[in-house]
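Below is how a single chain appears once it has passed through the pipeline. First comes the sequence as given, then the structure the pipeline wrote out for it. We keep one example in the README because the format questions we get most often are answered faster by looking than by reading.
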Amino acid sequence: MTIHLSTVLFVPLLTGLVGAFLPREGTRWAALIGTLIVLAYVVAMLVDFEPGGGLQWVTNDEWISELGISYKLGVDGLNLFMIALTAVSWVACTWVAAFSVVERSRLFFFYLALAETSVLGAFMAQDLALFIVFFDLMLVPFYFLIGGWGTGERVRATTKFVIYTLSGSLLMLAAAVALAVLATPDGGSISFSLAALGHRAIPLGSQEWIVLLFALAFFVKAPLFPLHGWVPDTYRATSIPVLALLSGVLSKVGVYGFLRIVLPVMPEGAQHWQELFIVMAVFSILYGSVLAFSQDNIRLVLAYSSIAQLGFIVLGIFALEEKGAQGALLQMLNHGLVVVPLFLIVGVIAVRSAGSESLRELGGMAFRAPVLAALFLIVSLATLAMPGSANFVGEILILFGTFENKLVYGLVASVGVVLAAVYMIRLYQGTMHGRVGALVEPREIDRVNLAAVVPLVAVVVALGLYPHFVVHRTERDTTDAIAKARQAGAPAEVSSIR
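Resulting structure:
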């Protein structure tokens, strides 16, 4: 099967446009077909991918030659599984949305398709300017999906979401332009190619403030403490299929940017801020875990749990050790694969409790819904990194990588593992066991959600049994991504004169 990345990238947008001119029933099926085509290509990519083979299926064309901007796409170990996560998540969430009552369905599915194209573009881009185009483009469909099809205080939620993410994006745009200009050698031509930028000399002082601006944009997108202020309102107001994608996939674009851009291009700058970013990561782990334990709304339990999990990922990246970075990339995939079915299950629970998402009003569903309870239990145990799950492998790799040089931070972060067990067991017991809530109608998961959740849970179980499938295909590229930053932080050898 010949793979053209431009085809994979623009199929969702094309089917979304076609669907916008079809009858309402045809609109949802056009969007779903687009996601299935992407998934078919991704399966072929997983089969044909050559571990350690560098960028594969490269598309490289001039775009704006005067500014050194190219249309360059490629796949390697850093983004292969992020693309796969995007594909499987969009199929599941589009499937659920296709069988839901959606007002203005043509617009909804068009924006959903545009969102998939923008996320795929951010993951595939090998040119900094192209990455920023797709990174900023993501804001447009999610702005409308949250504001147009959300609930409750959706206008307030959308406003916060836009202010936070747009501010970060503007800072990153300024940083990217400065990076390309400052990296241009005397008499040379400007270039936004990530490969070219990785081989150009950038003054240390410039690296420091440019890295900080990139980090602000990435931490908002992730999100990480203290740049998470948009999270509570947005998570309450967003519809379940969109929220599953927002938390499971969109959040990974930010932390992926560190591995793709910051560490390879500005290693000394990344090393300069290592301590600060690790402190932020540890605070996010503890803060997210404590608040997840104290929430009554089941959406917010998962929201703050995600902040804690993203903290672990950032900790692994900035430990600047091979094990930590490998664990971070694995955990990026793991978190997306468990949080998407978790939010779809939250949607099922809400439907069976007259729309209530309060733990105080829930309970007792497992008695009449054993399949729902079993699926919920599997993803809950994976979230708390139960031994035997890929999440366990990811967190162990992160902690081992942190213990190498940052033992104290690793020990403090380990508390988050214990807290995760507390809040996830509390969430599971509060919804599935105990007395049946006054508003609860305990009945089995419906076929639509079952068809969406079961494949995701199957992948979670499969990776728990064989995480080497991911590790083997990502190890070389992950090591290369942090190599320069590791060298920048290595103590200089001192020769003694006798």
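The first strand starts at residue 56 and ends at 64.

See the next section for the split statistics.
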